[in-house]
Design goal:
This protein is of the alpha+beta class and 175 residues long. The chain folds into two domains: 32 residues; 129 residues, Rieske [2Fe-2S] iron-sulphur domain (Rieske Iron-sulfur Protein, 3-layer Sandwich). It is 24% helix and 26% strand. A four-stranded antiparallel beta sheet has the order 5-6-7-8, with no helix packed on it. A three-stranded antiparallel beta sheet has the order 1-10-9, with no helix packed on it. A three-stranded antiparallel beta sheet has the order 2-3-4, with no helix packed on it.
Length: 175
């Protein structure tokens, strides 16, 4: 009878090691797609990504609408008259008192960037409309001034401001 000492490797030891290695590689191969499917979809990532807007083609007095995170963003190139009217409005006349200086970036008073969703029921207001030549929500009659502040109607708050910054004098990044 032949006896094998435990210090020698047998064919059975090799089979155990090989089977374990193949099992580990198979488990890792199964985990890769499982982990990958947990990452957000590319369209989801793109929907929340910041957008750059070139301000150069926007004429004075013009308001454009862009979309960020599926929300309409109004970018207004305000005239000197619109800026002066917004700045001289007494805070006592406002439902949601906020100065014009807090609604624009310092040194860029001519640019007003707003989320174009009425704070009453979520409608999209019309620009250059209403008693204050700002924004008017025809659904329920909310009237905003040239700074996007609520002046009349059922809306309780001013039009919200998105997070944005000036990348250069003629370009902003929203988000």
């Amino acid at each position: 009878m032949t006896t094998v000492s435990s210090a020698e490797h047998t064919r059975r030891d090799f089979l155990y090691i090989a089977t374990g290695a193949v099992g580990a590689v198979g488990a890792a191969a199964a985990l890769v797609p499982l982990v990958a499917q947990m990452n957000p979809d590319a369209s989801t990532i793109a929907a929340g990504a910041p957008i750059d807007v070139d301000l150069a083609p926007i004429a004075e007095g013009q308001i454009i609408k862009v979309f960020w995170r599926s929300k309409p963003i109004f970018i207004s190139h305000r005239t000197k008259k619109e800026i002066e009217e917004a700045q001289k409005t007494p805070l006592a006349e406002l439902k949601d008192a906020e100065t014009d200086q807090k609604r624009v970036k310092e040194g860029h008073d001519q640019w007003l960037v707003l989320i174009g969703i009425c704070t009453h029921l979520g409608c999209i207001p019309l620009s250059h409309q209403g008693e204050y030549n700002g924004f008017f929500c025809p659904c329920h009659g909310s009237v905003y001034d040239t700074s996007g502040r609520i002046r009349k109607g059922p809306a309780p708050f001013n039009l919200p401001l998105p997070p944005y910054k000036f990348v250069s004098d003629t370009k902003i990044q929203i988000g």
